[in-house]
Write a structure and sequence with these properties.
The complex is a heterodimer of chains A (274) and B (357).
Chain A: H1 2-31, H2 35-38, H3 54-61, H4 64-95, H5 99-113, H6 116-130, H7 136-161, H8 165-173, H9 178-206, H10 210-215, H11 224-231, H12 239-269
Chain B: E1 5-16, E2 19-30, E3 34-38, H1 45-53, E4 60-65, E5 68-69, E6 80-83, H2 95-105, H3 110-123, H4 139-151, E7 157-161, H5 169-186, E8 189-193, H6 197-203, E9 206-211, E10 214-219, H7 221-226, H8 231-236, E11 243-249, E12 255-258, E13 265-267, E14 277-282, E15 288-289, E16 296-306, E17 311-315, E18 321-325, E19 336-340, E20 347-349
Parallel strand pairs in B: 3-8, 3-9, 6-7, 7-8
Antiparallel strand pairs in B: 1-2, 1-4, 4-5, 9-10, 11-12, 11-14, 12-13, 14-20, 15-19, 16-17, 16-19, 17-18
The chains are: A mainly alpha (274), B alpha+beta (357).
The complex binds adenosine-5'-triphosphate and magnesium ion.
Magnesium ion binds next to helix 1 of chain B.
InterPro entries (chain B): AAA+_ATPase, ABC_transporter-like_ATP-bd, ABC_transporter-like_CS, ABC_transpr_MalK-like, ABC_transpr_MalK/UgpC-like, Mo/tungstate-bd_C_term_dom, NA-bd_OB-fold, OB_MalK-like
Keywords (chain B): ATP-binding, Hydrolase, Nucleotide-binding, Transport
Protein name (chain B): sn-glycerol-3-phosphate import ATP-binding protein UgpC
């Protein structure tokens, strides 16, 4: 009875996964189809004549190296900024409990609710007033940091809460300062959670679009997401090239996720200990 | 070097917001003594210990360690070591690194720290476990590592918070002796929290009984046993617990009538106030079963439990009078027996204030 139920659930899970992953598959397949095969009816699920050269071609004509580099700069900058500021914040929110902390937590959650497209106008005006628009990638890093911070803080706070306060107290009695105890006991135990959350932030920032599109006018500073959007003009027919672009853009992230997925899942669910 | 008082608390108060957790604690702990803090759950034992460690800040009074006021001193400057109930071993460090953690903080040269840790490990039987992680140890071994981590620092004061409560009964008895022997060998001052009065009685020089944040009584273990200051202490110290029977003193105050079938009368060792209601306290081990003799009263046997060496008898109308016998008797449930007691061992308590009379 339960065996059959388990099989049913497994089958359902596989079906959902297939439905969910189909667009990804379609992206890769479309990328290597020839122009005529893309529009053939009925569509082919396995390309008859794979065009492997399309990736190098697109990399070349769209100057993708520069776009990807900009994406990397923004993602790395955001991750470093979020991790350095957010870790301390998450720790305080995890350890000290009182009414003000609850209020702070509420505000942090509140920020998470506001959509980027709503925030972008006030941010744009503010950055412009501060002269930050002269360093548009940095401005985007700041904006994305603000947007990604709550998510990071909430994840990392849960990790810190899983570290027993007694370990920290033992370190204090053993002769350490609060900061020393944090570095030598709490942080190493929360390391997985912090790392995983930072990686998730990196991935999120790597694909960020709304802020980059509005804040970075100079094409040579735009990230790959904006480059992809510019590629998709209203009358485009170059679907294979666009899909090749998208493939190049997402494959490294996907690969990283698949390689790290066990640690990511473990880091998010099990907390820090045992 | 020769200061006599290691820890001195004067009028110490601790509030958690509106909750008054420690009330006017006065406690003097001489250098080299072993002090046990006992009391029921939630009475403030851990709070008091953690205040001495500096993990909680006190909200009133003065706390001194070796003549220095430490009210606002952070834990790391108090030179105290603490063994936690959960052991609180650093899970990401091997045993050896757990042991040397405090030494490394003191910038002890690496080789020397290692040597000191190895010496301590040898004295408590950890030498073969130095390269393991805490998760690879049994409960008893973890307990030893926690002890070792405290010992290796050679602190002024050891603080223990129920260190044996996660061990099985036989290991607990063994570690009891071992901790006391270590204390004597190191010549340290120890404060030991436990809710187990047997641990307190067997290990400590000085026992402090706490109740709801107040020191109910403190003194040498046998003093607390012989002269409990209140019904609470009388019931808490000693096992099985003291029997309490309502009664009333007679016209001349030299004897007391028990509120039992037939109003039996017991003579008192010391005269008490005449004609007043009292609670009579009789320790189970002081009651003997004597068919004749004086100062006895008759009860009906309701329960008999024998462990082989000791027989516990539950007697009286509600089987609430416990008697401990160390020899075997030919008695059975339903028998009426005579219980006798030495007049000097009859305790009297005020039924309202519960103070000893
Ligand atoms: N951080 C805190 N905030 C508020 N109240 C607290 C806090 N810590 C302890 N208390 C309260 O203080 C009282 C004493 O607690 P404490 O931990 O000292 O008890 P204990 O005697 O060690 O008990 P146990 O034997 O169960 O460990 C308890 O009533 C507890 O609820
Ligand atoms: Mg406690």
């Amino acid at each position: 009875m339960t065996r059959n139920m388990n099989r049913l659930y497994l089958a359902l899970a596989i079906i959902f996964a297939l439905v969910y992953l189909f667009p990804l598959y379609w992206m890769y397949v479309t990328a290597i189809k020839s122009g005529s095969e893309i529009f053939s009816y009925p569509p082919t699920f396995v390309p008859t004549d794979p065009q492997w050269g399309v990736f190098a071609h697109v990399w070349e004509i769209r100057d993708m190296g520069r776009f990807i580099w900009n994406s990397l700069v923004i993602a790395t900058g955001t991750m470093v900024l979020v991790a350095t500021l957010g870790t301390g914040c998450a720790y305080v929110l995890a350890r000290y409990r009182n009414g003000w902390i609850n209020l702070a937590l509420f505000l942090v959650l509140m920020l998470q609710v506001l959509p980027a497209s709503l925030m972008v106008t006030p941010l744009f005006v503010g950055f412009s007033a501060l002269g930050l628009l002269d360093y548009p990638r940095f401005a985007v890093i700041l904006a994305v940091t603000a947007k990604a911070m709550p998510f990071f803080v909430i994840l990392v706070r849960a990790t810190f809460m899983a570290v027993p306060a007694e370990l920290e107290e033992a370190a204090l009695v053993d002769g350490n300062s609060r900061i020393g105890a944090f570095w030598s006991v709490v942080l190493p135990l929360a390391r997985n959670g912090v790392l995983v959350s930072a990686i998730l932030i990196f991935m999120q920032a790597f694909g960020e679009f709304v802020y980059s599109k509005s804040i970075i006018q100079d094409v040579s500073l735009q990230p790959a997401s904006v480059g992809l959007n510019a590629f998709m003009g209203p009358n485009t027919v170059e679907w294979n090239n666009i899909m090749a672009y998208a493939s190049i853009y997402v494959t490294p992230i996907l690969a990283a996720f698949v390689l790290l997925q066990q640690r990511i899942v473990a880091g998010l669910t099990s907390g820090a200990l045992k | 070097m020769t200061q006599n008082l290691q820890i001195e608390l004067t009028g110490v108060d601790k509030h958690y917001g509106g909750f008054h957790a420690l009330k006017d604690i006065n406690l003097s702990i001489p250098n080299g003594s072993f002090v046990a803090l006992v009391g029921p759950s939630g009475c403030g034992k851990s709070t008091l210990l953690r205040s001495i460690a500096g993990l909680e800040s006190i909200t009133g009074g003065v706390m001194k360690i070796t003549d220095e006021v430490v009210n606002d001193m952070p834990p790391r400057r108090r030179d105290v070591a603490m063994v936690f109930q959960s052991y609180a071993l650093y899970p990401h460090m091997k045993v050896i690194d757990n042991l040397t953690y405090s030494l490394r903080l003191k910038k002890t040269p690496k080789a020397q720290a290692r040597k000191m840790a190895e010496e301590v490990a040898a004295t408590i039987g950890l030498e073969t476990l130095l390269d393991r992680y805490p998760r690879e140890l049994s409960g008893g071994q973890r307990q030893r590592v926690a002890m070792g981590r405290a010992i290796v620092r050679r602190p002024k004061v050891f603080l223990f918070d129920e260190p044996l409560s996660n061990l099985d009964a036989s290991l607990r008895v063994h570690m009891r002796k071992e901790i006391r022997a270590l204390h004597d060998r190191l010549g340290a001052t120890s404060v030991y929290v436990t809710h187990d009065q047997i641990e307190a009685m067997t290990m400590a020089d000085h026992v402090v009984v706490l109740r709801a944040g107040v020191i109910e009584q403190q003194g040498a273990p046998l003093d607390l046993y012989d002269r409990p200051a209140s019904k609470f202490v009388a019931g808490f110290i000693g096992s099985p617990a003291m029997n309490f029977i309502p009664g009333r003193t007679n016209g001349d105050g030299t004897s007391v009538d028990l509120a039992l079938d037939g109003q039996p009368t017991l003579r008192l060792g010391r005269p008490a106030a005449a004609n007043q209601d009292v609670i009579v306290g009789l320790r189970p081990e002081h009651l003997s079963m004597a068919s004749t003799g004086d100062n006895n009263f008759a009860v009906r046997v309701g329960v008999i439990e024998s462990t082989g060496s000791t027989t516990y008898v539950g007697a009286g109308d509600r089987n609430d009078i416990t008697v401990v016998l160390s020899d075997r008797r030919n008695i059975s449930v339903g028998d009426r027996v005579q219980l006798a007691i030495d007049p000097d061992k009859v305790h009297l308590f005020d039924p309202i204030t519960e103070a000893a009379l």
